[in-house]
Amino acid sequence: MTPAGSHVVFIHGLWLHASSWAPWTELFQAAGYAPVAPGWPGDSGTVAETRSHPDQVAGKGIDDVVEHYAQIIGGLDAPPIVIGHSFGGLIVQRLLGQDLAAAGVAIDAAPVKGVLYLPPSALRVASIALRNPASRNKAVALTPEQFRYGFGNTLPAQESAELYQRWTVPSPGKPLFEAAAANLSRRSPAKVNTGNKTRGPLLLIAGGHDHTVPAAITRSTRKLYHKSPAITDLREFNDRGHSLTIDHGWREIADEVLNWLSQRVK
Predict the structure, then answer these.
(1) Secondary structure letter of residue 78 according to DSSP
(2) Which of 70, 32, 247, 62 is nearest to 160 (CA)?
(3) For labelling, which of 33, 45, 184, 202 has a CA lying 20 to 30 Å from the CA of 253?
(4) What DSSP string runs through 131-198?
(5) What's the rounded Cα separation, in Å, for the pair 110 and 125?
(6) Helix (H), strand (E) at residue 249
(7) Pairing relation of β-strands 34-36 and 81-85?
(8) Distance CA 209, CA 241 (A)
């Protein structure tokens, strides 16, 4: 029987392919973990295949993604650590709140229900889908310029362009619509059980120059957990943007996560 916390499930967010976690999975395997990085439902095995079949991801919502990863977790022999970026960070919090994971790390996580203030830069990124109601049930792709603003704003232009070409894929628009309406819906799929007293530890990570999920959103998310005695830690990297898991500085974030896990997950 594998000890709880030995498995690690990496969960990507919108517009990045699961293979963007490859450096992380290699590092975590070397550190003694058993990592996997499955794609969202409908994702193909490669960036090129996913770009070629955008309709396969269209219409998938937050509940679809949570159920997809819950099934993957159900096939493991022990509860895993779940690590997610952007909307993947919201999925992490759903899974942890449902006691499906031993611990969670949510990096620049999309806002959960209860986060009321969305800074203008976050609204600008979300508007890529929200400005067209038909995008709710379609796949939405970023242009290089949109990626530069939403992900690569702290990077040299060449690095942002290279990351765009290497990792970006079309993603479902539906999660953006669900998150935008979260505080208007009693049964929003963006609702997380922040009051769970027995869940595993959670680390929230924020990038101080993130346009897509500004640090103010992550701080607001942290406050929603105040009623739970379970561990909820916050780390901020003041000079980083939304690309912090895939750019030249990814190792700084990964090492912080490994250090936190060594302290919080025994």
Answers:
(1) S
(2) 247
(3) 45
(4) TSGGGGGSEE---HHHHHHHT-TTS-HHHHHHHHHHHB--EESHHHHHHHTGGG-TT-TT---TT-SS
(5) 12
(6) none
(7) unpaired
(8) 5
Residue from 5, 228, 233 nearest 103 by CA: 5
Per DSSP, what are the bridge partners of residue 202? 104, 232
3-state secondary structure of 103: strand
Closest C-alpha among 109, 126, 137, 125 to residue 12? 109
For residue range 28-47, list pLDDT tens digits in order.
999 999 999 999 999 999 99
Span between the terminal Cα atoms of the chain, in Å: 16
| Domains along the chain with CATH numbers | 7-264 (3.40.50.1820)
User: Tokens standing for 111?
Assistant: 């806002």
pLDDT in tens, 84-96: 999 999 999 999 9
Could you tell me if 212 and 143 are in contact, meaning their C-beta atoms sit under 8 angstroms apart?
Answer: no
Tokens of 87: 């909307």
How far, in Å, CA of 58 to CA of 9, rounded? 23
Task: Look at residues 257, 254, 198, 206 and name the one whose alpha carbon lies nearest to residue 231.
Answer: 198
